[in-house]
Amino acid sequence: MSSRTFPLALAAAALLLAACGEEKVSTYEVPKEKDPEVPMAAPDAASQAPASPGAAMADTAVPTASGDALAWQAPSQWTPKPASAMRKGSYSVPGEGGESDLSITAFPGDVGGELQNVNRWRGQIGLGPLEPGDLESSVHRVEANGLKITIVELEPKGDPAGKSILGAMVPFGGSTWFFKLMGPGISVKAAKPAFLEFLHTVKAP
Amino acid sequence: MSETLKQLRGIFVSLRLTVVLLALSIVLIFWATLDQVNLGIWAVQQKFFHSFLVWVKLGSLQVPVYPGGYLIGGLLLANLISAHVYRFKAGWRKSGIWIAHAGLILLLIGQLVTGLVQKESVMRLDEGETKNYAESSRFNELAIIDVTDPKVDAVVAIPESLLASGTVIQNPKLPFKVVPRGYFPNTDIAMRSQAPAAAPSVVTQGIGLQVTTSPVDVTYKEDARNMPAAYVELVGPDGSLGTWDVSLWFNPEFAPGPFLGVPQKFDFGGRTWKLVMRPTRTYEPYSVTLEKFSHDIYPGTDIPKNFSSKVRINPPGGGEGREVLIYMNNPLRYAGLTYYQQSFDPNTDKTTILEVVSNPSWLVPYISCGAITLGLLIQFMIHLVGFARKRRSA
Lengths: 205, 394
Known about the structure:
The structure holds 2 protein chains of 2 kinds.
Chain A (H helix, E strand, L loop, with lengths): L4 H16 L5 E6 L11 H4 L10 E3 L19 E2 L8 E5 L6 E9 L5 H11 L10 H4 E6 L2 E8 L8 E10 L2 E10 H15 L6
Chain B lengths: L2 H11 L1 H35 L3 E6 L2 E7 L1 H19 L7 H23 L1 E8 L3 E17 L5 E8 H5 L12 E8 L2 E5 L19 E5 L13 E8 L2 E9 L16 E5 L2 E27 L6 E11 L7 E6 L4 E3 L2 E8 L6 E8 L5 H30 L1
Helix pairs in contact in B: 1-3, 2-3, 3-4, 4-6
């Protein structure tokens, strides 16, 4: 091959190879995939969601709660974080074992009920789900400022270094508000008194 | 041979060209390394090495300012091969040099092939989970899935590049046309109820009615992902079915809250369809199950000491699978793919993230380095033996 034709051949080969990577629509069949497990709102809550004009819609997304907002007073040592689209409030809670994250979210209805919510949190730190009969013994109920607060404390068994969750659920105005403190076990434990005190500052507007 | 051709040949076979190209590549690598701060490694590779020219933005114009990796590598290869062809003389005295140079040529070609055909994706597995596909960490697709059949999902996957170019998609498996009405490579999302001042959107169906999607700058950060969204109108034989917002934000793996994970479904033509924007999937005939993920950290820190995944490969026929332990620097090679332990989900410690690399030319660097070593060794021995003989005879 002469010295002139080689670079041309090389460029042609490069173009051919590049053409292989062109993106096209592909069609195929796969065994049925389950939809991700998403806690559904109770039927009465679903009816509060804005009605979709698409009558043919098989289902509709559940929005975050948009009614009156709860108010609270956070301790000064907690650092507020920029609110994201889904969070009503967000704080970084310092601790010996590292920072914990406090998220405040609200969704319409009872979001599948207390058991389902507790089990979702349990799943997040690797604990198995609770049976319906075990729920009452693993939650703690308090009342503050006329709000009924259900508190749940979750820590992974036999793993002091694992993540823990200290959570609270507050039904309010047809929605459920979730206060979830998640972080290293030691930090969450240390932040518990401040968290409980903080819950007592939560009130309706 | 005409004078011009002779001159051209002279340039191609010259050692001067080699030196100039090597100098250019040093500058290219230096510049690319500095630019990695702004662009991240993937974008730098695309801009500087997987390109014929390096383009720089001057005002509103893109201007080529420097030869890219393909051009320098291609010329280097042409230079090396032309010099060989021109100067080749048969005989064993130069055999070592030939072998070493053949190794170098193979290395350059191998890199070109790798750059063009290598595919990287990610397989994310929870303990106990089985998957037969890997997902791209860069590219996304709109999957329109016919979910009517209780056993099988029929998928039509549309690459986001087609949504971006606004190509109208008509596929024999779909009873409607897909008309892209807008595409944003990276977006932010907010609930419409919390953004009363937001402009009305073109969306008429689905979750998109309840959110506002706003375009944001494309990110090149290593630890961040672009969240593309598109507005697509579906048009049936009797007119429009509506316009949907399809966004990676609605994918439960990326959604900030649990609620946006609800799939967008609708009924049309007696069948139920699902619309999902998701990372581009590559299916394999076999599946992989994560049996156990282990993760140790250095005491008192969050720094990983080692992490490993015990996986089971389930072959296509459903026969006896085999168990493999994947850990750092000990990847699994199976069916032309390499599974590396890449990362894990620090929130659960039960989820592994494996990098899946398809690189048909992965052996080439080993072979070429072997050839270069062998060539140099042979050449050295030829000289050594010659020198020893001369010395003895003197």
